[in-house]
Design goal:
single chain
Length: 199
Amino acid sequence: MRGSCVGGQGKAAGGRGVVTGERDAGAGPRSGWDGNGGAGMIGGPFFVLVVVGVLGTGLVAGVFCGFSTFVMRGLAALPPAQGVAAMNAINVAAVRPAFMTVFTGSAALCALIAVVTFVVWPQEGRVELLLGSASYLAGSFGLTVVANVPRNDRLARLTPGTPEAAVYWPAYVREWTFWNHVRTAASAAAALFYILALA
C-alpha cells in the first residue's frame, strides 16, 4: 500500500512537472519578427532593421546640425557673391552618392519600418516606431523636398555678384536655416523614438 501511495505521488508530481513545463514554455515573450508570426517584443530581423534606422536618422541629424550650428553662420559672414557661390557648390556636392545614400536610404528604411510595424504590430514599442518613421519621413525628408530644395533651386538660377543674388542671399540664409533647424530636430527625434522602441 505504501509503495502504491508513493508511486501515486510520483505520478502526480510528474503530472505537475508536465503542466509546469508547458506553462513555462508558453510564458516567454515572443519576438516581433521571429519567423513564427509572434508579436511581442521587437526582435530578430526587425530589431536589426530598427538599429540601422537609428544609425541612418542619427547620421542625417548630425549633418543637418552641422549646417545649423556653424556652416550657415560661416557662409552668412561672407560677402553675398562669395556666399552664393559657396552655397551653390555645397548643394551640388550634396547630391553625390555619399550623402544621398544615407538621406534617401534612411527614408526608405523608415517607410519599411512603418510597414513592418503595421504588419507585425508588436506589443511593445509600436507607437515609438510609428512616431519615428513619421518624424523622419515628414519632418526631414518631406520638408527637404518642399522647403529646402526649392530655395536651393532658386539660388542656383542666380549669378553670384548680381544685384538679384545679393538681395536674395540674406532671405535665403534666414529661411533655409530655419527649415534646417526643423529637419534637424525631426531627424534627431526619429532616432530617439527608435531608441525608445528598443529600450
